[in-house]
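Hi R.,

Here are the chain sequences for the assembly we discussed:
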Amino acid sequence: MDKGKNIMATEKKIDCVILGLLSHEDLTGYEIKKRMDTALKYFWGASYGSIYPALGDLVERGLATKRDGAENGRSKLIYSITGEGRAYLKAWLALPVEKDELRYETLLKLFFGKDGGEGQAIDHINAFQEKIEKELPYLLGAEKTLKNVFDMDETHKYYLLTVEFGIKTYEAYLAWCKEAKEMLGLTE
Amino acid sequence: MDKGKNIMATEKKIDCVILGLLSHEDLTGYEIKKRMDTALKYFWGASYGSIYPALGDLVERGLATKRDGAENGRSKLIYSITGEGRAYLKAWLALPVEKDELRYETLLKLFFGKDGGEGQAIDHINAFQEKIEKELPYLLGAEKTLKNVFDMDETHKYYLLTVEFGIKTYEAYLAWCKEAKEMLGLTE
DNA sequence: CTTACCATGTAAGGCGTTACATGATTCA
DNA sequence: TGAATCATGTAACGCCTTACATGGTAAG
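And here is the predicted structure of the full complex:
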């Protein structure tokens, strides 16, 4: 229940992500979801079903505040981080990382690939490759954009770091796809 | 509820992993867990709390059978895959991959790294790097072993494929760690 | 003799997704 | 006028981990 130096109750990751986003700018739940689907998508995801309840919690616990930001009849709730929220975020950032987790169904299917046959294994690799090839350009685009604002905003340097991670791993994935198909092709 | 060409009720991944392992050899629940903690650990994990109940289900559904394999007083339940189990596994392998998912808390903390400061960001990167450096030798060892049995057993070719994936990505991770620290060091 | 490993399981609870429900506005 | 996007939320359910509970054996 208590992990030693950890003073924080139970840092739910969703809370931390939201607070992190709010620490940069005020946002609506909808906008938070959009950030998750773009900037964070390569290493973290969340659905409305977890975002909205979390926002309610955050406000209740005094880590964020909610205000009405309706514009010409379109209802909108804008959230801001509080001082306590910033303190909470800072405390979480100081804690060591608990878990980095990768769950690739593609690798699972490949591991048992013998039972499905070579052609099927290659199909799975191709599907994987296409997905990566489709996403890589977005990362490359983000890299270019971010490098231009490099010394305009410190925040972007950290963002760039995660983009570089995505690019490097995606490129490694593509190299693997090529090799893997060759390996399978050799013995057919 | 129904994903088109998918005849299978709801292919729970845990069932598929277990069937996959059982398709290679008969195993106890304990041994299945060990496989997950070694060979599969780089891309899939599971706890006893999910393995044992799943094994029970599999037997109930006729996809596996259970037999007593007690040895000198040590109780042991050995599971085997059935013909239906093999058919189920084959059907699952033929379906397209639904989701490959990566959740790296390290990247999350880095994304919001500005709020924690440069030193902290570097600490997180170093911790990540150490973890990778500790695990890479196991993958390299597995690679060597597998390459020796390459044409002895077709099954091992597929296993090798996943090991190569691990090696390639881990090497990319290490390259990124180096670059990331340089990037942070530059502007201090 | 005690630590590590072998071995099986359950119960509670956490965390999150999917699907549902609703409704306004903007753009083509 | 219809589709896409903006916008907020709930309910059901699924899936899994953690912690608990138990007990035998092998090795040092």
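Chain B touches chain A through 67 residues (CB under 8 Å). Confidence is low (pLDDT under 50) at residues 1-6 of chain B.

Let me know if anything looks off.

Best,
T.
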